[in-house]
Amino acid sequence: MTDNTTHNQIVAIHHAARPTVIEYAGAGSQALWWLHSVAGSSRTILEATDRYSRDSMVDLLGQQPAQFVSQATAVAMAHAGYRRAMDLSNNAAVVALSCTATIATDRVKLGDHGCWVTTRDQHQIISYGLTLSKGARDRSGEEAVISTLLIQALACAVGVIPAVTLDLRPDERFDVITTPCHDVLGDLLHGDMPIVEYQSATNDFSSKNISNATILSGSFNPLHTGHRELLATAMRMSGQVGYCELSVINADKPPLRYSVIAQRASLFTSAPSLILTRAPRFIDKAARMPGSTFVLGYDTVVRLLNPKYYPDGDVSGSLAQIAQHDCRFIVAGRITDDGVFHSFDAQVVPSAWRHLFTAIDEKTFRNDLSSTAIRSV
Fold first, then answer.
1. 175 with 283, same domain?
2. What is the pLDDT of residue 284?
3. Residue 335, domain CATH
4. Alpha carbon of 19 to those of 98, 217, 281: distances in Å?
5. Which of 179, 119, 182 is nearest to 152 (CA)?
6. How, if at all, do strands 195-199 and 204-207 pair?
7. Same domain assignment for residues 216 and 307
8. How do residues 333-363 score in pLDDT, each as one tens digit?
9. pLDDT attached to residue 1
10. Which residues pair with 213 in a beta bridge?
11. What range does the domain containing 288 cover?
12. Do 170 and 205 belong together in one domain?
Protein backbone atom coordinates (compact mmCIF):
# COMPACT_ATOMS: atom_id res chain seq x y z
CA MET A 1 0.00 0.00 0.00
CA THR A 2 1.12 3.56 -0.67
CA ASP A 3 1.39 6.22 2.04
CA ASN A 4 -0.95 9.20 1.92
CA THR A 5 1.61 11.48 0.27
CA THR A 6 2.33 9.06 -2.57
CA HIS A 7 -1.36 8.28 -2.97
CA ASN A 8 -2.23 11.96 -3.28
CA GLN A 9 0.58 12.49 -5.78
CA ILE A 10 -0.78 9.66 -7.93
CA VAL A 11 -4.31 11.10 -7.78
CA ALA A 12 -2.89 14.39 -9.03
CA ILE A 13 -0.83 12.65 -11.73
CA HIS A 14 -3.95 10.95 -13.10
CA HIS A 15 -5.84 14.24 -12.94
CA ALA A 16 -3.09 15.88 -15.04
CA ALA A 17 -3.84 13.24 -17.74
CA ARG A 18 -0.40 13.32 -19.38
CA PRO A 19 -0.15 10.16 -21.54
CA THR A 20 2.96 8.28 -20.39
CA VAL A 21 5.08 5.37 -21.55
CA ILE A 22 7.13 3.67 -18.85
CA GLU A 23 10.28 1.65 -19.54
CA TYR A 24 11.97 0.06 -16.55
CA ALA A 25 14.65 -2.55 -15.80
CA GLY A 26 15.87 -4.01 -12.54
CA ALA A 27 13.31 -2.24 -10.33
CA GLY A 28 10.22 -0.06 -10.60
CA SER A 29 7.40 -2.60 -10.87
CA GLN A 30 5.97 -1.45 -7.55
CA ALA A 31 5.57 2.08 -8.95
CA LEU A 32 3.52 0.67 -11.80
CA TRP A 33 1.33 -1.26 -9.34
CA TRP A 34 0.85 1.91 -7.27
CA LEU A 35 -0.18 3.87 -10.36
CA HIS A 36 -2.71 1.19 -11.32
CA SER A 37 -4.03 0.88 -7.76
CA VAL A 38 -5.43 4.43 -7.91
CA ALA A 39 -8.46 5.00 -10.14
CA GLY A 40 -7.74 6.93 -13.33
CA SER A 41 -4.53 5.21 -14.45
CA SER A 42 -5.91 4.83 -18.00
CA ARG A 43 -5.57 8.61 -18.36
CA THR A 44 -1.86 8.35 -17.53
CA ILE A 45 -0.42 5.04 -18.69
CA LEU A 46 -0.21 4.31 -22.40
CA GLU A 47 2.17 1.40 -22.01
CA ALA A 48 4.66 0.02 -19.47
CA THR A 49 7.36 -2.53 -20.23
CA ASP A 50 9.68 -4.41 -17.88
CA ARG A 51 13.00 -4.74 -19.75
CA TYR A 52 14.30 -7.45 -17.46
CA SER A 53 16.31 -9.49 -19.94
CA ARG A 54 19.35 -8.32 -21.85
CA ASP A 55 17.67 -9.07 -25.19
CA SER A 56 14.62 -6.98 -24.25
CA MET A 57 16.84 -3.98 -23.50
CA VAL A 58 18.74 -4.44 -26.76
CA ASP A 59 15.40 -4.60 -28.60
CA LEU A 60 14.39 -1.27 -27.06
CA LEU A 61 17.66 0.56 -27.69
CA GLY A 62 18.78 -1.10 -30.91
CA GLN A 63 22.10 -2.06 -29.35
CA GLN A 64 23.58 -3.29 -26.09
CA PRO A 65 24.41 -0.35 -23.82
CA ALA A 66 27.96 0.07 -22.61
CA GLN A 67 26.63 -0.03 -19.04
CA PHE A 68 23.12 -1.15 -18.17
CA VAL A 69 22.68 0.99 -15.04
CA SER A 70 23.82 4.46 -16.10
CA GLN A 71 22.47 7.89 -16.88
CA ALA A 72 23.17 7.37 -20.60
CA THR A 73 21.12 4.17 -20.65
CA ALA A 74 18.23 5.75 -18.73
CA VAL A 75 18.21 8.69 -21.17
CA ALA A 76 18.28 6.35 -24.18
CA MET A 77 15.36 4.40 -22.67
CA ALA A 78 13.45 7.66 -22.15
CA HIS A 79 14.06 8.74 -25.76
CA ALA A 80 12.71 5.40 -26.99
CA GLY A 81 9.74 5.69 -24.63
CA TYR A 82 9.01 9.21 -25.86
CA ARG A 83 8.95 8.07 -29.49
CA ARG A 84 6.60 5.27 -28.51
CA ALA A 85 4.34 7.68 -26.59
CA MET A 86 4.15 9.98 -29.61
CA ASP A 87 3.16 7.00 -31.77
CA LEU A 88 0.42 5.97 -29.34
CA SER A 89 -1.07 9.37 -28.56
CA ASN A 90 -2.08 12.49 -30.48
CA ASN A 91 -1.51 14.53 -27.34
CA ALA A 92 1.48 16.89 -27.59
CA ALA A 93 2.02 16.66 -23.81
CA VAL A 94 3.26 13.06 -23.67
CA VAL A 95 5.83 11.93 -21.10
CA ALA A 96 8.34 9.10 -21.05
CA LEU A 97 9.52 7.67 -17.72
CA SER A 98 12.47 5.29 -17.56
CA CYS A 99 14.34 3.46 -14.84
CA THR A 100 17.40 1.21 -14.90
CA ALA A 101 18.38 -0.17 -11.51
CA THR A 102 20.33 -2.77 -9.60
CA ILE A 103 19.07 -3.79 -6.16
CA ALA A 104 19.62 -6.52 -3.55
CA THR A 105 19.13 -10.07 -4.76
CA ASP A 106 19.92 -13.64 -3.67
CA ARG A 107 23.62 -13.18 -4.38
CA VAL A 108 26.23 -10.61 -3.35
CA LYS A 109 26.73 -7.84 -5.91
CA LEU A 110 30.13 -6.19 -6.21
CA GLY A 111 28.92 -2.76 -7.33
CA ASP A 112 26.67 -0.15 -5.74
CA HIS A 113 22.93 -0.58 -5.40
CA GLY A 114 20.86 2.17 -6.93
CA CYS A 115 19.31 3.48 -10.11
CA TRP A 116 19.02 6.13 -12.76
CA VAL A 117 15.51 7.42 -13.45
CA THR A 118 14.78 9.76 -16.36
CA THR A 119 11.75 11.68 -17.60
CA ARG A 120 11.46 13.08 -21.13
CA ASP A 121 8.81 15.41 -22.51
CA GLN A 122 8.67 17.84 -25.42
CA HIS A 123 10.93 20.36 -23.72
CA GLN A 124 13.42 18.72 -21.37
CA ILE A 125 15.09 15.63 -19.94
CA ILE A 126 15.48 15.24 -16.19
CA SER A 127 17.71 12.45 -14.86
CA TYR A 128 17.83 11.34 -11.23
CA GLY A 129 20.79 9.29 -10.01
CA LEU A 130 20.40 7.43 -6.72
CA THR A 131 23.10 5.45 -4.89
CA LEU A 132 21.76 3.46 -1.95
CA SER A 133 23.60 2.38 1.19
CA LYS A 134 24.37 -1.28 0.60
CA GLY A 135 22.82 -3.54 3.24
CA ALA A 136 20.72 -0.81 4.85
CA ARG A 137 17.51 -2.24 3.29
CA ASP A 138 16.36 -5.57 1.95
CA ARG A 139 15.23 -6.02 -1.67
CA SER A 140 11.67 -4.88 -1.01
CA GLY A 141 12.95 -1.83 0.87
CA GLU A 142 15.20 -0.80 -2.03
CA GLU A 143 12.37 -1.43 -4.49
CA ALA A 144 10.10 0.83 -2.43
CA VAL A 145 12.62 3.72 -2.44
CA ILE A 146 13.19 3.47 -6.19
CA SER A 147 9.48 3.17 -6.92
CA THR A 148 8.85 6.26 -4.79
CA LEU A 149 11.46 8.06 -6.89
CA LEU A 150 9.63 7.00 -10.09
CA ILE A 151 6.32 8.36 -8.78
CA GLN A 152 7.88 11.64 -7.72
CA ALA A 153 9.82 11.99 -10.98
CA LEU A 154 6.58 11.55 -12.94
CA ALA A 155 4.76 13.96 -10.60
CA CYS A 156 7.49 16.52 -11.20
CA ALA A 157 7.33 15.99 -14.98
CA VAL A 158 3.57 16.62 -15.13
CA GLY A 159 3.74 19.63 -12.80
CA VAL A 160 2.23 18.09 -9.66
CA ILE A 161 5.25 18.78 -7.45
CA PRO A 162 8.12 21.25 -7.96
CA ALA A 163 10.95 18.85 -7.17
CA VAL A 164 11.78 15.32 -6.00
CA THR A 165 12.44 14.94 -2.27
CA LEU A 166 13.40 11.52 -0.87
CA ASP A 167 13.93 10.36 2.74
CA LEU A 168 17.48 9.04 2.42
CA ARG A 169 20.32 8.10 4.76
CA PRO A 170 23.20 10.61 5.18
CA ASP A 171 25.60 8.32 3.28
CA GLU A 172 23.29 7.94 0.26
CA ARG A 173 23.81 10.04 -2.86
CA PHE A 174 21.13 11.70 -4.98
CA ASP A 175 21.88 13.69 -8.15
CA VAL A 176 19.54 15.61 -10.48
CA ILE A 177 20.59 16.57 -14.01
CA THR A 178 18.29 18.67 -16.22
CA THR A 179 18.92 19.03 -19.96
CA PRO A 180 16.83 21.12 -22.42
CA CYS A 181 15.56 18.97 -25.29
CA HIS A 182 13.01 20.75 -27.44
CA ASP A 183 11.10 18.48 -29.82
CA VAL A 184 10.78 20.44 -33.07
CA LEU A 185 9.26 17.45 -34.88
CA GLY A 186 6.57 17.35 -32.20
CA ASP A 187 5.86 21.03 -32.87
CA LEU A 188 5.28 20.20 -36.54
CA LEU A 189 3.04 17.23 -35.81
CA HIS A 190 0.82 19.27 -33.55
CA GLY A 191 0.53 22.25 -35.89
CA ASP A 192 2.78 24.65 -33.98
CA MET A 193 5.35 24.93 -36.79
CA PRO A 194 4.70 24.91 -40.58
CA ILE A 195 8.02 23.57 -41.93
CA VAL A 196 11.01 21.81 -40.37
CA GLU A 197 14.27 20.62 -41.89
CA TYR A 198 16.06 17.40 -40.98
CA GLN A 199 19.62 17.96 -39.77
CA SER A 200 21.52 14.78 -40.64
CA ALA A 201 24.66 15.79 -38.72
CA THR A 202 22.77 15.83 -35.42
CA ASN A 203 19.86 13.53 -36.34
CA ASP A 204 17.50 16.32 -35.31
CA PHE A 205 15.08 18.88 -36.78
CA SER A 206 15.02 22.66 -36.98
CA SER A 207 12.52 25.31 -38.07
CA LYS A 208 12.80 26.34 -41.72
CA ASN A 209 11.32 29.00 -44.01
CA ILE A 210 11.15 28.02 -47.68
CA SER A 211 10.58 30.14 -50.79
CA ASN A 212 11.82 30.12 -54.39
CA ALA A 213 12.95 26.52 -54.14
CA THR A 214 12.52 23.36 -56.20
CA ILE A 215 10.53 20.82 -54.22
CA LEU A 216 10.23 17.08 -54.84
CA SER A 217 7.38 15.75 -52.70
CA GLY A 218 7.08 12.07 -51.86
CA SER A 219 6.83 9.39 -49.21
CA PHE A 220 10.47 8.32 -49.69
CA ASN A 221 9.79 4.79 -48.53
CA PRO A 222 12.62 4.34 -49.32
CA LEU A 223 14.66 7.19 -50.79
CA HIS A 224 16.40 6.01 -54.00
CA THR A 225 18.52 7.23 -56.92
CA GLY A 226 15.42 8.02 -59.00
CA HIS A 227 14.43 10.67 -56.46
CA ARG A 228 17.93 12.18 -56.40
CA GLU A 229 18.30 12.23 -60.20
CA LEU A 230 14.84 13.70 -60.78
CA LEU A 231 15.39 16.52 -58.30
CA ALA A 232 18.84 17.26 -59.72
CA THR A 233 17.39 17.46 -63.26
CA ALA A 234 14.61 19.81 -62.13
CA MET A 235 17.07 22.01 -60.24
CA ARG A 236 19.12 22.48 -63.41
CA MET A 237 15.96 23.56 -65.23
CA SER A 238 14.73 25.93 -62.50
CA GLY A 239 18.03 27.34 -61.25
CA GLN A 240 16.71 27.06 -57.69
CA VAL A 241 17.97 25.29 -54.58
CA GLY A 242 16.26 21.92 -54.13
CA TYR A 243 14.64 19.96 -51.31
CA CYS A 244 12.81 16.70 -50.90
CA GLU A 245 9.55 17.26 -49.02
CA LEU A 246 7.69 14.78 -46.87
CA SER A 247 4.21 15.80 -45.75
CA VAL A 248 3.30 14.19 -42.43
CA ILE A 249 -0.36 14.46 -43.49
CA ASN A 250 -1.50 12.67 -46.65
CA ALA A 251 -4.67 13.27 -48.63
CA ASP A 252 -5.16 9.52 -49.21
CA LYS A 253 -3.58 7.84 -46.16
CA PRO A 254 -3.53 8.15 -42.35
CA PRO A 255 -1.04 10.62 -40.82
CA LEU A 256 2.48 9.26 -40.45
CA ARG A 257 3.56 8.10 -37.01
CA TYR A 258 6.38 9.86 -35.17
CA SER A 259 8.75 6.88 -35.34
CA VAL A 260 8.04 6.36 -39.06
CA ILE A 261 8.87 9.99 -39.82
CA ALA A 262 12.11 9.75 -37.84
CA GLN A 263 13.06 6.57 -39.70
CA ARG A 264 12.32 8.08 -43.13
CA ALA A 265 14.30 11.20 -42.26
CA SER A 266 17.31 9.13 -41.19
CA LEU A 267 17.69 7.98 -44.82
CA PHE A 268 18.79 11.51 -45.79
CA THR A 269 22.42 11.23 -44.74
CA SER A 270 23.62 13.40 -47.64
CA ALA A 271 22.17 15.76 -50.26
CA PRO A 272 19.40 16.48 -51.02
CA SER A 273 18.08 18.02 -47.83
CA LEU A 274 14.72 16.91 -46.44
CA ILE A 275 11.98 19.24 -45.25
CA LEU A 276 8.77 18.15 -43.55
CA THR A 277 5.41 19.92 -43.71
CA ARG A 278 1.74 19.52 -42.86
CA ALA A 279 0.80 20.35 -46.46
CA PRO A 280 -0.81 17.34 -48.17
CA ARG A 281 -2.06 19.21 -51.27
CA PHE A 282 -0.11 21.39 -53.67
CA ILE A 283 -2.41 24.29 -52.93
CA ASP A 284 -1.23 24.00 -49.30
CA LYS A 285 2.42 23.65 -50.32
CA ALA A 286 2.23 26.75 -52.54
CA ALA A 287 0.86 28.85 -49.68
CA ARG A 288 3.73 27.76 -47.40
CA MET A 289 6.53 27.89 -50.02
CA PRO A 290 5.83 30.80 -52.41
CA GLY A 291 7.82 31.15 -55.61
CA SER A 292 8.62 27.44 -55.63
CA THR A 293 8.72 24.87 -58.40
CA PHE A 294 7.12 21.52 -57.61
CA VAL A 295 8.54 18.42 -59.28
CA LEU A 296 5.94 15.81 -60.21
CA GLY A 297 5.74 12.44 -61.87
CA TYR A 298 3.03 11.77 -64.43
CA ASP A 299 0.95 9.81 -61.90
CA THR A 300 0.99 12.71 -59.45
CA VAL A 301 -0.23 15.14 -62.12
CA VAL A 302 -3.21 12.84 -62.66
CA ARG A 303 -4.08 13.23 -58.97
CA LEU A 304 -3.37 16.98 -59.04
CA LEU A 305 -5.99 17.40 -61.77
CA ASN A 306 -8.56 15.15 -60.06
CA PRO A 307 -11.50 17.22 -58.68
CA LYS A 308 -11.98 14.84 -55.72
CA TYR A 309 -8.91 16.29 -53.99
CA TYR A 310 -10.49 19.77 -53.81
CA PRO A 311 -13.31 20.66 -51.39
CA ASP A 312 -15.39 22.29 -54.14
CA GLY A 313 -14.07 20.19 -57.02
CA ASP A 314 -12.73 23.36 -58.67
CA VAL A 315 -9.39 22.34 -60.22
CA SER A 316 -9.06 25.57 -62.22
CA GLY A 317 -9.68 27.72 -59.15
CA SER A 318 -7.05 25.81 -57.19
CA LEU A 319 -4.49 26.22 -59.97
CA ALA A 320 -5.28 29.94 -59.93
CA GLN A 321 -4.41 30.09 -56.23
CA ILE A 322 -1.17 28.22 -56.86
CA ALA A 323 -0.34 30.76 -59.58
CA GLN A 324 -1.04 33.61 -57.15
CA HIS A 325 1.77 32.25 -54.98
CA ASP A 326 4.05 32.37 -58.05
CA CYS A 327 4.49 28.60 -58.05
CA ARG A 328 4.76 26.26 -61.02
CA PHE A 329 5.39 22.60 -61.92
CA ILE A 330 8.02 20.49 -63.66
CA VAL A 331 6.67 17.09 -64.73
CA ALA A 332 8.55 13.87 -65.50
CA GLY A 333 7.17 10.85 -67.33
CA ARG A 334 6.42 7.69 -65.36
CA ILE A 335 5.56 4.06 -65.90
CA THR A 336 2.05 3.60 -64.51
CA ASP A 337 0.28 0.48 -63.24
CA ASP A 338 -0.51 -0.57 -66.81
CA GLY A 339 3.23 -0.98 -67.47
CA VAL A 340 3.29 1.84 -70.04
CA PHE A 341 5.61 4.86 -69.86
CA HIS A 342 3.54 8.05 -70.03
CA SER A 343 5.02 11.43 -70.91
CA PHE A 344 3.24 14.53 -69.72
CA ASP A 345 0.97 16.31 -72.20
CA ALA A 346 -0.04 19.83 -71.13
CA GLN A 347 -3.29 19.48 -73.10
CA VAL A 348 -4.81 17.72 -70.07
CA VAL A 349 -4.46 20.96 -68.08
CA PRO A 350 -7.12 23.71 -68.27
CA SER A 351 -5.89 26.06 -71.01
CA ALA A 352 -5.58 29.10 -68.75
CA TRP A 353 -2.99 27.34 -66.59
CA ARG A 354 -0.88 25.35 -69.04
CA HIS A 355 1.90 27.91 -68.70
CA LEU A 356 2.44 26.67 -65.13
CA PHE A 357 3.61 23.24 -66.36
CA THR A 358 6.91 22.26 -68.00
CA ALA A 359 7.55 18.70 -69.14
CA ILE A 360 10.90 16.91 -68.76
CA ASP A 361 11.74 15.20 -72.03
CA GLU A 362 12.24 11.44 -71.76
CA LYS A 363 15.72 11.79 -73.26
CA THR A 364 16.64 14.29 -70.56
CA PHE A 365 15.42 12.16 -67.67
CA ARG A 366 13.96 8.72 -67.29
CA ASN A 367 14.40 6.47 -64.26
CA ASP A 368 11.90 3.68 -63.77
CA LEU A 369 12.85 2.87 -60.17
CA SER A 370 9.94 2.97 -57.74
CA SER A 371 9.78 2.73 -53.96
CA THR A 372 6.95 0.21 -54.27
CA ALA A 373 9.09 -2.10 -56.40
CA ILE A 374 12.06 -1.76 -54.04
CA ARG A 375 9.91 -2.65 -51.01
CA SER A 376 8.56 -5.76 -52.78
CA VAL A 377 12.04 -7.25 -53.30
1. no
2. 94
3. 3.40.50.620
4. 14, 33, 31
5. 119
6. antiparallel
7. yes
8. 998 888 899 999 888 898 999 999 999 999 9
9. 59
10. 241
11. 185-376
12. no
- In percent, how much of the chain has pLDDT > 70? 99
Is the N-terminal amide bond of 19 cis, ω within 30° of 0?
no
Rounded Cα–Cα distance for residues 189 and 92 (Å)? 8
Given a contact cutoff of 8 angstroms between Cβ atoms, the answer to whether 135 and 108 are in contact is no
pTM higher than 0.85 for the full model?
yes
Confirm if 52 and 126 have CB atoms less than 8 A apart. no
DSSP state of 256: P
Q: Is 318 exposed, middle or buried (0-12, 13-18, 19+ CB in 10 A)?
A: buried
Written as one string, the DSSP assignment of 126-175 is: EEEEEEEPTTSS-HHHHHHHHHHHHHHHHHHHTTSSSS------TT-EEE
Burial level of 203, CB count in 10 A (0-12/13-18/19+)? Answer: exposed
239 and 102 belong to one structural domain = no
Number of domains in the chain: 2
The pLDDT of residue 211? 98
pLDDT at 252 over 80: no
* Distance in angstroms (rounded) separating the CA atoms of residues 12 and 371: 48
Do 371 and 278 belong together in one domain? yes
Q: What is the pLDDT of residues 302-318, one digit of tens each?
A: 889 988 877 788 899 99
